[in-house]
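Thanks for the sequence, V.! I ran Exodeoxyribonuclease III right away. Repeating your input here for the record:
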Amino acid sequence: MKIVSYNVNGIKARLERLVEYLTEAQPDIVCLQELKSSDETLPVAAIEAAGYGAVWHGQKGFNGVAILAKGQQPVERQRGLAGDPEDAHSRYIEAEVGDLIVGGLYLPNGNPQPGPKFEYKLRWMERLNARAAALLAEERPAILAGDFNVIPNDDDTFSVRAMAEDALMQPESRARYRELLAQGWTDALRTRFPKGGVWTFWDYQAGAWQRDAGFRIDHLLLSPQAADRFTGAGVDKAYRGREKASDHAPTWVTLR
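Predicted structure:
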């Protein structure tokens, strides 16, 4: 079973690339982020024509997450995170696909920092960590997959110096990510590549793709029951180099 996290950076602008990926790679489950589209205008028909059922949590022009499943309809469990009734951002959706619980997320960027956006990021991470702990308490195979907007380690970026002031790499962001892992979640890509040096994002600016100046912010975290079925992880990097591609590459884990 191949489970993918894919920040498409606008599903309408990237629909051709997404359908292309679904057709060629045939992943079993795909967590999408940054749809930038309301529920009413999402291209559901094109996704279904590619052979996928889906649950969506859209938002006009910003954010937006979805879970796609090949040949079946995901069963939605939850959308949004508890703890902040004022938060109107579409950043979390949770569903069951077979025996697997899937949480798809698009964590706040947090820039500029310090400031309100960074404070929102940290509060959101605390709410995510609370939901993650509740999932672990179910003692079932579960995965949290998405754009976490956190560079966990120095070797997860092309340049520590270039990213030093960025919200993605601040000690507070990293600390909350480590707290999440300490609950018992397994970072699949880190497990497969323990020495780092694997990127999932390359900015459109300054020739980042051409220079391979990227970093790792797309993560797939496995509960102990899912980690027992872990067989591999990687990044489908070539898709980042295609015409009108997203600035993220599909990032994946395989389970028995």
